[in-house]
Amino acid sequence: MTEALRTAVDPDHETTLELIETAGDSLCTLLGRCRVEYDGRAASTLDSGDRLVVLKPDGTVLVHTDEGQQPVNWQPPGCTHEADIEDDHLVVRSHRTSPDEKLVVRFGRVVHATAYEATDAAELVLTGTEADLRERILAEPSLLEPGFEPRATERETPAGAVDIYGQDSNGNVVIVELKRRRVGPDAVSQLNRYVAALDRDLHEGTTVRGVLVAPSVTDTARRLLDERSLEFVSLEP
Amino acid sequence: MTEALRTAVDPDHETTLELIETAGDSLCTLLGRCRVEYDGRAASTLDSGDRLVVLKPDGTVLVHTDEGQQPVNWQPPGCTHEADIEDDHLVVRSHRTSPDEKLVVRFGRVVHATAYEATDAAELVLTGTEADLRERILAEPSLLEPGFEPRATERETPAGAVDIYGQDSNGNVVIVELKRRRVGPDAVSQLNRYVAALDRDLHEGTTVRGVLVAPSVTDTARRLLDERSLEFVSLEP
DNA sequence: GTCTTCATGTCGGAT
DNA sequence: ATCCGACGTGAAGAC
Q: b vs e for B95-122, b when ≥16 Cβ sit within 10 Å of the residue's Cβ?
């Protein structure tokens, strides 16, 4: 039987190197003290500290400190990485092109290393997204307002695609922008952009209404809505 | 000497439970087959699969599959978590309030567990940010245009704070919006929002120019800039 | 590839 | 606590 897991406690660099190089489809974790350098879209350096480094078989690299949800440094999927021993350090280099980016993790000491052949066929089932909110309105358009009739989703305008495009009971065009959470000024600007684009394109005399749908709205956003004669409807996803 | 690292290979649930409960300031990693449920701002379920679960001493929880840079499920820092054995499963529950969110990871089998007392005093030094671009312009305002004179940064308007507020050689007000990377329609809307707000506020007759500074601009954004009589200057951070 | 927008975005700074 | 915008945002879908 092939072992799905290999581990090394307080490994010397040769052992760690061998584990990384024979990782294949395994997920690798490295615990130890390291420095990190990154150069690409931006550039960064990180002094020595104890961290968890994760190497995924898809090329992802994550450097996690003991704090925070986000990795302090990383490389995205699709990167190639290699490991070497240099100057008594275990060095992991990850690289990608377009954009050209490289990450170098230099371990003085590796405290623990694992390679785990993980198999995972499951897919996340997520509800409460903006798409769910859209389906809710399409199934029951009166949630927006009585007489509302959806005509299209993702309808294109010169300024981008509108979430829901429809008509009200008076025959006016209605543009609906959906947000799954409380909205700020950016969402108002987005809606305004679509309304302005359609105002330009449609026949003179056609009234274009813009409706922002979200659970709630900040004061600033509310003021911006009023200034631009845009509307707000409170709905949760 | 206190061991900075504890590990358990193919541990029974009691062993894993003990390791988690005595983790203290340690960073914990769990490798094994689990199901995950999340309920909070949204809700999700994830069927059984082999994953890496990271428990940080600050309350962060990360569930990583063998693919992707992002965790498939997570909890942010500040959460409290507890572990239990239920129905022959090791169950890790993480919870927070405001918003009320909970994450449940249910392991059928844990293949490996570690607790690592990581110490990390280092801070990331990052260059190539928007702040760097701002400093570059403030040090040499002619990069924007000859005669430009910065007057303030983060100047408040009714629509939000402007990156750089200044004057051109003709005494016109200049509003500068900075982006460290190629910009799309959203950045144009943002700049337009600030310009419109100041146009309203300032005396009649004062000309307010809006300048978007970024490495480059998409076609749509370029067209939007032109329609609103806003300007673009190409600069890298 | 580029473009556009969503995200359980996360994070930090200011109020 | 909320608001607001930056982020090496990442990820997905359309073209």
A: bbeeeebbbbbbbebbbbbbbbbbebeb
